[in-house]
Amino acid sequence: MMPSVAEERLAPRIVGVEFPFGHAFGMPHDGPMQRRTLELALRVLAGASRTGTRVDLDLEWPVPVREAYRAWQPKEPSPIVRKMLESRKGS
Amino acid sequence: MVVDSFRYLPRTFRPLYEGRGPFPGEEEAVWTPFEKRLAQSRIALLTSAGIYLKSSQTPFDLEREQTHPEWGDPSWRAIPSTYGAGDIGVAHLHINDEDLLADAEIALPMNLLGELAVEGVIGGTMAEHLSVMGFQDRSLRDWHDRTAPELVAHLRREAADGLILAPA
After folding, report:
1. Backbone dihedral angles phi then psi of residue B140, each to the nearest 5 degrees
2. Looking at the 3D structure of chain B, how many domains does it have?
3. Is B81 part of a structural domain of the chain?
4. Smaller CB count within 10 Å for chain B: N or C?
5. Chain B residues touching residue A47 (CB < 8 angstroms)
6. A22 CB near a chain B CB, below 8 Å?
């Protein structure tokens, strides 16, 4: 989901997906989408010839960005996000 | 197509991830060639979605995270590939768990991997796959000293040839 971060961290093999957080392999109950993702991961696992190999999956998330952006987030802010928001308010 | 790594990340979080470089002490790239054919290889999965089995496992410790916001539970769970769909729980305060509970394959595609094994695409899958909770203390000390060595030992015991890590 954040392949450029994996690159910075020097992950040896990376598959980039432009999917919302919590959905590494795709939409729920979408077997073909999940299969395309998993098969690409297996190809990169077995076929990469050097460290830092990155291949991005050419699949668009089938939900409008704004809706998907809201949907992946927890109903309540996580404790660390709450703490960050509180410290911003206080500054 | 080049994936936009920050498409779904709140803008204010971007500096927390971008331009940080490698972890201290991990500046050298690692590399292990994959020498077997996939069709002869046993493949394992690891998710960081905080999945656990409600009937037999304790959830990741979210209570402590509530009182210590910079801490994340560094323990791990082995999820049998024969799990019952209704037995899947999710303990992760940083993502919405609705889709994961509806179809855990979006994070841990154990059934799909099993199908690929039956079709002969891979040699085999594991009796158990791995689950962690992805929000961790930024120093990653517990992960470095305990979690990662335990996971590696488990995978070696189970004779895994390759591991697909799926961040949540």
Report:
1. 55, 25
2. 1
3. yes
4. N
5. 34
6. yes
